[in-house]
Amino acid sequence: MARLVMNAAPTTSQRPLGAEHLLVFRLDDDRYALNASAVLRVTWAVRITRLPVAPEVVLGVIDVAGRVLPVVDTRQRFGLPRRDLLVSDNLIIARTSRRQLVLAVDQVDGVIEYPEEKVQAAPEIVPGTDYVRGVAKLADGLVLIHDLDTFLSLDEEQSLDRALELSLDRQEPEGGGDPGGAGGGDDAQ
Questions:
Q1: Residue pLDDT, tens place only, 129-151
Q2: How sure is the predictor about 14, in pLDDT bands with cuts at 50, 70 and 90?
Q3: CA distance 169 to 178
Q4: On the CB side of 145, how many CA atoms lie within 13 Å of its CA?
C-alpha cells in the first residue's frame, strides 16, 4: 500500500527496507512519478526563455540560482497535446546522471512511499517507452514512473548541449567573463 509523505525524500537510513519514495505529479488527469531522490526542488511556473536550435522536447531555459537549466516539455514526451504553461503549473527541478533539468508539469501531488517489489516493469505494460521505468498500482489508479536518465535520447542530449553552448556564447560580453566580477547569482542549492 502506498503512503503519502509530504516532506522531502528521506535518506536511505530513514527509509523502510524495500520502500521507494516517489514524487507524484499530474499531466491532465494522468499521474506520473520520479524517484524522489532525483528531485532537487519544486517551484511554481516562471517565464521560460526560448532556446534556439534546441531539441523539440525542450521548451527553453530558466535561471535557477544562477544556473541556466533546460525545461523539458513533459506533455510532449508522453504524447499529450501541447499547451501554454499556466501560472498554476509546477516546475520540477531534478538531476540525471548527466545534468540538471526542469520538468514542466500541471501539478505536483506529493511524495508517496511505495514497496519496490510491487513496481511492475514498464516493458510488460507500456512497451516502447524507454523513459518509463515502471508502473505503481495504487488504490485509486496507476502511476507511470519516469527514468530520468533515459528521458532524453542521446541525440537530444547532444543537440541540447550544442544549443546551450550557443546560447551562453551569445550572452558573454566581449572579452569573455564577467567584467564586474559580480557573478550571475547565488549558486547555492
A1: 666 778 888 888 888 888 888 87
A2: very low
A3: 13
A4: 24
Place of cell 560580453: 173
Spatial distance between the Cα atoms of 189 and 186, rounded to a whole number of angstroms: 8
Q: Collect all residues with Cβ–Cβ distance below 8 Å to 59 and sequence separation of at least 6.
A: 48, 50, 71, 72, 73, 85, 104
Grid coordinates representing 65 are: 540560482
Q: Residues near 50 by Cβ (< 8 Å), separated by ≥ 6? A: 59, 60
Q: What is the DSSP string of 162-186?
A: HHHHHHHHHHSPTTSS-TT---SS-
Measured CA to CA, the distance from residue 175 to residue 121 in angstroms comes to: 52
Where do runs of H (alpha helix) occur along 11-134?
Answer: 74-77, 122-125
Q: Judging by beta carbons within 10 Å of its beta carbon (0-12, 13-18, 19+), is residue 143 exposed, middle or buried?
A: buried
